[in-house]
Specification:
α2 (about 20-30) runs antiparallel to α6. With about 100 residues, the protein is mainly alpha-helical. About 70% of the residues lie in helices and about 0% in strands. It starts with a helix and ends with a helix.
Length: about 100
């Protein structure tokens, strides 16, 4: 699936089948369900899940928690807009 197809899928009621957990989390976040997105990544291990976890806490406004997760994934907190961070994450994980 490419980025545009992923973005179009946001019009649906359910995420597309076969998405990796980090992409399912981003899908739910984009649909306004932060809690479901957080629940998904909270149950996952690895740097990709930590990276999305960091983004979600940044979006929530809990920067100290976000920074903890940015350190866990080995990245710095972006200074740009949240929507640009979401787009970059979705594109990155779709390419993998």
């Amino acid at each position: 699936m490419d980025f545009e197809a992923f973005r179009r899928s946001l019009a649906g009621k359910q995420p597309p089948r076969g998405l990796a957990p980090v992409l399912r989390a981003l899908w739910h976040d984009a649909r306004g369900n932060w809690a479901r997105a957080h629940e998904i990544v909270q149950g996952e291990r690895g740097k990709d899940a930590a990276r999305v976890h960091a983004y979600l806490h940044r979006k929530e406004g809990d920067l100290s928690n976000a920074d903890y997760w940015y350190v866990r994934c080995g990245e710095e907190r972006p200074r740009g807009a949240l929507d640009k961070e979401w787009e970059a994450l979705a594109a990155r994980f779709l390419e993998e």
